[in-house]
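Why run this: before we spend reagent on co-expression, it is cheaper to look at a predicted model of the complex and decide which construct boundaries make sense. The entries below are exactly what would go into the expression plan.
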Amino acid sequence: MQFYGTEISSRLLLGTAQYPSPAILAAAVKSSGTGIITVSLRRESTDGSGAGFWDGLRETGCRILPNTAGCHSVQEAVTTAHMARDLFGTPWIKLEVIGHSDTLQPDVFGLVEAARVLCADGFQVFPYTTDDLVVGEKLLEAGCELLMPWGAPIGSGQGMRNPDALRAMRAHFPEVPLIVDAGIGRPSDAAQAMELGMDAVLLNTAVAKAGDPARMAAAMAQAIEAGRAGYEADPMERRDMAVPSTPVLGLAEFA
Amino acid sequence: MKIIVNAKPHEISATDLKAALHELGFACSSVATALNGTFVARGNREAVQLTEGDRLEVLAPMQGG
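The model came back. Tokens follow.
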């Protein structure tokens, strides 16, 4: 699988926020097996704390996917994306244009507009979007080559709130990489996303806020692998009634 | 002159952005800058002249999801 022509080694993308310590973050990144980590940009103090964090990230060897988290307007998101490209030296940007501060729901109108501006400027945009098919089409028209629908609101850990919509996205965009971004709480949620045919999962809080983040990172990686294998193996159809699995032919008669 | 750096007032003697960052004590290689809401690329900092009351944003890598 490729994102913008780059071969992807792991279907798990991991966020770097909210870990109890830098050492635990590093352990979680390692045990997740991820090749892509997300980062943000915030105001720097003159003690260079951001520079120290950046040094730690580089040691992981992972590709960096900077985000525009916290941006509520097109202008904020576009400016932040430019600053991220200048700082991290990557055309990749996880584009967030937030509509509501309580639900953190994407402002899909602003998202499409910002995506159009950034794609035209050579960015490779990873848009954090809803599971709406028409919005997905507009993002692809804007120049995005992949989509990142939410599973549930950011940080909520609710799992796949609308699996039917994600299944519809898979059917509607068979060739477009789909990454579930946000809402994963447990390994079973990640497995479900993959069983629905998603190509990858981006998660953060579910690992960072687990009692043992490194162990949870490994569990998520296993769930994602299992879910993907299950999808590729073409699961059986559900049935409403029981069907015997043991052959009825040759059953003895005792009465 | 007085400029606003990350929402706090600072008195500086430098007149261009690159020199101002140095004077303010930022590690120039690991920050990104925007002046009055407009992105300024690393390579353009020396050419950007500051004026009284300018609002400078200096951002660095931070944990993110």
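Chain B has a mean pLDDT of 93. Chain B touches chain A at residues 6-7, 24-27, 30-34, 37-39, 41-42, 57-65 (CB under 8 Å). Bring this page to Monday's planning discussion.
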